Amino acid sequence: MKKIQKVHVHELVSQEIQNYIQESKLKAGDKLPSVDELTRMFGVGRSSLREALRYLEAIEIVRVENGKGIFVRDVDIFRFSGKIKVENEKRFLLCVLDVRRALEGKAIELAAKRITPAQLEELAACVTEYRRMKESGLETSEVDFAFHRQIIKVASNPILEGMMESISVLTKKFFHEPLGNKHLFDATYPFHLTMFDAIAANDPDKALVELNKHMDCVEESIKSVL
């Protein structure tokens, strides 16, 4: 049985805002309704709306000006289906990847130094599940995401963990059908195994090398999409 894909509220809200821009025939520079009006229109909380707006700002659909309002930044990035043009999403993913590479690079170094036996068992269980699902031909995006989240946790740095959490709405785009292809990053699977081995060996230098190989693979996969 196919696993039902989880959809987050902010993802639905960001799509509804895009639909509103199209249906209202808004142009670049036009002002959207206020935050309070948008929360009432879509029946969502302010936190979900803020996450949606952060994402739409990152992909240059809207511009939020404190004290002034929310403005349309670019209307030419929509497909007729309401999805973002591939080139803009590629640019977005590559920009977020730069941030991931920096933050996760430090996290994996710390994880290799600080991992406890209990944490190692948890990470090993994640890798075992990843391998089982991969060999069974199952969808692996959730366990892939869990693996990276576990490394951040093992780093035992609350500030670093908080920074990663603050951009989680952006990083999740790597794990939920990026560029319309849920198998885009399948080639990164072996690097999860080598990253785990380096962490288990308490070798931060090797762990960082393997993470960068992983990120290089992700980058090439993004760039290869036409």
Task: Report on the architecture of this protein.
This protein has 226 residues and is mainly alpha-helical. The protein folds into two domains: 9-72, Orthogonal Bundle (Arc Repressor Mutant, subunit A), CATH 1.10.10; 86-224, GntR ligand-binding domain-like (Four Helix Bundle (Hemerythrin (Met), subunit A), Up-down Bundle). It is built from ten helices and two strands. It has helices at 9-23, 35-42, 46-58, 86-114, 117-135, 141-154, 158-166, 168-171, 189-200, 204-224, and strands spanning 62-65, 69-72. Strand 1 and strand 2 (69-72) form a beta hairpin. Helix 1 (9-23) packs across helix 3 and helix 5 (117-135) runs antiparallel to helix 9 (189-200). The radius of gyration is 19 Å and the shape is elongated.
Radius of gyration: 19 Å
Q: In the residues, how many domains can be counted?
A: 2
**Percent of residues in beta strands:** under 5%
The helix-strand sequence is HHHEEHHHHHHH
Give, in spatial order, the strands making up the sheet with the most strands: 1-2
Low-confidence parts: 1-5, 79-84
Shape: elongated
Distance between the termini: 32 Å
Reading off the top of the CATH hierarchy, the class of the largest domain is best stated as Mainly Alpha
The CATH topology of the largest domain: Four Helix Bundle (Hemerythrin (Met), subunit A)
- What's the architecture of the largest domain, going by CATH? Up-down Bundle
- Average pLDDT level: 88
Q: So, the CATH homologous superfamily of the largest domain?
A: GntR ligand-binding domain-like
What's the total helix number?
10
Helix content: 55-70%
Q: Which structural class fits the helix and strand makeup?
A: mainly alpha
Pfam family, one: GntR
Protein name: FadR family transcriptional regulator
Keywords: DNA-binding, Transcription, Transcription regulation
GO molecular function, one term: DNA binding
